[in-house]
Amino acid sequence: MTPEPFGARLRHAMDTRGPLCVGIDPHASLLTSWGLDDDIAGLERFTRTTVEALADRVAVLKPQSAFFERFGSRGIAVLEKAVEEARSAGALVLMDAKRGDIGSTMGAYAATYLDQDSPLFSDAVTVSPYLGFGSLRPALDAAAASGAGVFVLALTSNPEGAEVQRATAADGRSLAQLMLDHMAAENEGAAPLGSVGAVVGATLGDAGVDLAINGPLLAPGIGAQGATPADLPAVFGDAVGNVVPSVSRGVLRHGPDASGLREAAERFADEIRGAVSGS
Ligand SMILES: O=c1ccn([C@@H]2O[C@H](COP(=O)(O)O)[C@@H](O)[C@H]2O)c(=O)[nH]1
Predict the structure, then answer these.
(1) C-alpha dihedral, 228 to 230 to 233 to 236, nearest 10°
(2) Which residue, by CA, sits nearest to atom 16 of ligand 1?
(3) pTM for the model
(4) d(CA 102, CA 198)
(5) 98 in active site
(6) For residue 150, how many other CB atoms are within 10 A of its CB?
(7) ipTM > 0.90, yes or no
(8) Whether residue 26 has its Cβ less than 6 Å from ligand 1
(9) Alpha helices by DSSP H, 3-60
(10) Which of 89, 42, 37, 82 is nearest to 62 (CA)?
């Protein structure tokens, strides 16, 4: 049976749960502030608490792979379990791994995150197109085959990103616009939403690019990086209805109690609803 495409599953999740994505970023400083040791037991407790608190209510959970990789194979085992438990509880899992390499190696990353038989299979994964959009083909094809999604970096939330992403391509477009146009082509004809998303920071002010890619727009940078839900209409304009606003530390700092995490997520969800409906 053909799996339901990620874009359709995400649209449904956004419409029923609201569009908020909460990142699972087990920073050493957060483990400490939760009263946990910065070791594998602390990582396991932090991750389990976050998944149990939020996976039954937010649309998307986004584990940041780097914070699990730093513990080696035991960290990856915690990540595998988190992915499985979050998906079982109804959240879509977006693996924030930002993979990017030549196409043949990209095939191995695709097998890791986008093959349903892999222990790290996720609903979607973040990738970098700055080895050329075509290098992403193995991931795009694997995602389409498994009903998963791919979020491609376009304009990242960090200020350093602009020197690359705003640079001008040979035909006069910015590199970010070039990548966004590739994403629009991948999503052409998809309904209700394509499965190839763009990462566009909520920190950018007016994004200054055409965001009509017929796909989701992941917006990190809310909370610890200084953006707020009120910034979303100015950054995303007419595309704001396709935005998946993402918050990690802004929610996680309210742990370790599940109620603190839930209330923080609910506050962000309310603010997002207000900002988007008023735009
Ligand atoms: O442009 C980007 C792309 C990804 N990220 C990731 O999102 C979270 C942000 O964490 P906060 O604690 O909410 O600042 C983190 O995992 C980044 O690697 C991003 O910030 N910007």
Answers:
(1) 0
(2) 64
(3) 0.98
(4) 20
(5) yes
(6) 27
(7) yes
(8) no
(9) 6-17, 28-33, 40-54
(10) 82
